[in-house]
Amino acid sequence: MSAIQLRNLTKTFGDFTALKTMDLDIADGEFMALLGPSGCGKSTTMNMIAGMEEPTSGKILFGERDMAGVPMGRRGVGFVFQNYAIFTHMTVRQNLAYGPRMRGAAKAEIDRRVGAITELLQLTPLLDRKADRLSVNILQRVAIGRSAIMEPAIFLLDEPLSNVDAAFRAVMRTELKQLQRQFKQTMVYVTHDQLEAMTMADRIAVMDHGVLQQVGTPLEVYNNPANVFVARFIGAPGMNLLKGRPAESDRGLVVDLGPMGVTPPLPDALAATLRGARGDVLYGFRPEQVALAQDRRGLAMPVTFVERIGARTIVHLGQGDGAVKAVFDNDVGLSIGQTAIVAPAASSVRIFDAASGLAMKAG
Amino acid sequence: MADIVFRNVTKRYGTTLAVDDASFTVNDNEFFCFFGPPLSGKSTILRLVLGLESPDAGEILIGGRPVNAMSPAERNVAMVFQNLALFPHMSALDNVRFPLVERGVAELQIKKRVADVAAKLHIGHILHKPPAQLSGGERQRVAIARALVRDPNAYLMDDPISALDARLREETRVELKRIQRELGKTLIYVTHDQEEAMSIADRIAILENGRIRQIGAPAEIYDRPASTYVARLLGSPMMNILKSARGEGGVEAAEGTIRIVDKAAPADAVEIGLRPEDIKVRPWPIDGKEDGGQGRPARVFEVEPLGGYTVVTLAAGQARLKALLRGQPDIRPDAMVAISCEPARVHYFGQSGGALAR
Predict the structure, then answer these.
(1) CB contact, 8 Å: B342 with chain A?
(2) Are residues A268 and A147 part of one domain?
(3) Going by C-beta distance under 8 Å and a sequence separation of 6 or more, which residues neighbour residue B98?
(4) In this predicted complex, what is the ipTM?
């Protein structure tokens, strides 16, 4: 069994706590992304799973087996790092065959595995090329192949695509997903790129400052972020958050944003939660779920910047703490200095407690 | 006036043509971006403008004056380096002063120039701090101030924000564009990030192996790429490009992948290009009459949720296509769907990959 359980996992380096009491269950065959900015503890977590670092306290279980004291080589994990480790004096075939050969696999078995992996990673035409003649993109593909060919039950990848170019990254995302589907390993994928996590992972563990913030499917963390960190980190651009205070109006409960005016009425379920609440809240909505309103039933905001990126237009509105972004599918004809009236879709509105940063659940 | 003109400029390194017969004009006060894959000639063009390299052929003019024979100092073009390269042991103020101090400019003059540039870049209040205590955006402004304190004719940036993470890059590029607008000075900018190029440039020059393939406003290049090469470089996911043939009453792409009924389709088209956002995806089966028989069946191969959008990879005929759909549609792998594309959204390409007018 190659399920992974992290129990109360903690790692300190002197005074610095890199990871704080992390609990996480990764199912057998699951693709789990550890996502967060640099310094969030994601690589430390992975290094402990790999056996490269010892936990300060807490446990790591593979299936039911406690990994304490089990050396890296006996854990049955494969890894790929940001900087591919390839023998440059060898051909692609020799690099791929290296692991199985060291394990004493039979020639026929090695050939079969090399054939299967090169097919999947589109390396077949390059099999007899020397590695030192290959591009960075291809080298990373060979590195992935060299780990995958060992058919590890657990596959650990630490930012494997951060050095390859953008076009190739898109191709590799699809290939990695295919690889995992075919070999059904448990994948733990470390990244700071929310797009990679969203597009590949079955579930995402979002981390910040050594603390696990939320675990969920890509759409769960996008649609229902547990706190403001996750709300801002997931999505491109992240969620808009405006500070205000709940207030009654003749149209129902709204959030009073001070000089910016009041929001459209909140949906009933959110209004019910908020009626009893005290203190400031953050009114959150996704940039992709904003409509331009014709009447005054929205927030009137000055356009400060317009980016047209291919088919998408990102409109920047307001300033400082009152800045928001709205994404449209086409050129909406707004320009800097104009005032736009923006209305977030009622279903997309999320409310967070301003003091704790935690999401306030509807209902 | 500080327009920058290249007339048939060529630069060789040994047998490699780093820049191949390049001609372009960067207008005064323009934000002009060079974009292309590694080794396409972007950085060589910057070096030629700066005067760190001299061309093997052709002429370079800055502000109307030929500069081929001028030293870098005489050209007075400033460079903002990748990762900003601020001196960590100096305060922001000493960093900004440095180029003038080094040139032996009088103290009174230095004070005046620094005050000017600090006011323009809104950094007066942070000048006493060392770089380590500044935010990314502040460091950016200090690095630009250092480049501009000499009052250059133009300034150049070589992939200045590539080391930042994705979220910070989104913020910083907007900041850069604002700064350039406020300063109103010619900026030549190199990036490897297509989204960044489209977001901030007034115009983009697309490079391939030292040759300029297309120059235009970002929207112009995106909407009317001059070739399949250019079409693939801008846009994410990239444009779907399929072999095509003329069929009865329309264009058939890659053995029935998709069918386009377009009487205006050029006869010599051998490939068609479909932007992922232009592919319509509906449940299969469909009523054939509804769209004039354009919908073709495809199998959903992969679904990638981005939150606000969903990328769907489709297996259709011999080909794989990517479609970009709004929102979070309920589409699962292995489902059958009907795909189509409005004829007006189709790009046609000829034998050599060049775009054809419809």
Answers:
(1) no
(2) no
(3) B87, B90, B146
(4) 0.86
